[in-house]
Amino acid sequence: MGNRNGLLVQTFLTEASGRAERDAAMLMAEAIPPGKRVTLGGDKNYDKREFVRELRGMNITPHVPQNTTNRRSTVDERTTPCGV
Description:
With 84 residues, the protein is α+β, with helices and mostly antiparallel strands. The chain is built from two helices and two strands; from the N terminus they run αβαβ. The longest helix has 11 residues. The protein is globular, with a radius of gyration of 13 Å.
């Protein structure tokens, strides 16, 4: 979804697997032309080490809330101001 006006940008149909949303997001991210820094927003279920690392390797800033429920977040101060 576009954050500014809530327009649907792209969609994928996936089988529920516990990681289907992240897999679909990665496919969509890979289709973004390289060169321009972009952000990718998601909920706290996108706060996974492999997902965040791959996005950063593609020059994409993950804009997701930290998931600190029973674990340490992989999203750090580069994405969250003042570590909040």
